[in-house]
Amino acid sequence: MSDIWAVIPVKEFDGAKHRLSDFLSPSQRRLLAETMLTDVIDAVAGSRLLAGVMIVTLDPHATVLGDKIGARIVTEGARDGHTGSVNAGRRLLASEGRHGMITMPGDIPATRAGEIDAVLSSHRAARSFTISPAHDDLGSNAVVCSPPESVPLRFGDNSYFPHLDAARLQGIEPTVIRQPGIAMDIDHPVDLALFLRLPQSAGTRTRTLLEELGVPALLAKRGIT
Predict the structure, then answer these.
(1) For a disulfide at 59, which of 9, 12, 70, 216, Cβ 3.0-4.6 Å?
(2) What pTM was computed for the model?
(3) DSSP character for 136?
(4) DSSP label at residue 203
């Protein structure tokens, strides 16, 4: 087994996914965020190549989900945004001499353990940087760094190409590997439609929830297919 840890930053669920507010109520958006994270946690728990899982959060429900798989719960940096949370987690791993880190968000529910292992298998020996982008080539949905702090990271709506540049500035040629489940993050209504059409979404808790909430019909009514 490699000495690479997963770092998953999780914001508090209250007020989650506000860009879906035209389709879902606050309580439904909270439930969606919790359900997506459950699918992601299932995927990392099934990975054969991870040394451990760290969840950076202050949310009680996320903590319970992490505890179920024996994840390490870290609160430092949990309210410092996505970038701040990831940096807090990887600083801790670096201070402990861990060899590497893979970070993923909690809103890529179509990912599977096999995809995570494929990304880790493509990762070269340190110093190295591997990235699996979002479907639109804007977001950085899985990033692997060896050592954990080898490349400066800054997440946001347009981070993929800046991360490639950041790696090269450190003298590291990035490895790019695309995985359809990892690529499908859910932020906007059109993402819901793309997710529902994705074969990898079949069998996920998130797809079941969206169908129970009548989201396919809502999307069709709005002409989003």
Answers:
(1) 12
(2) 0.96
(3) T
(4) T
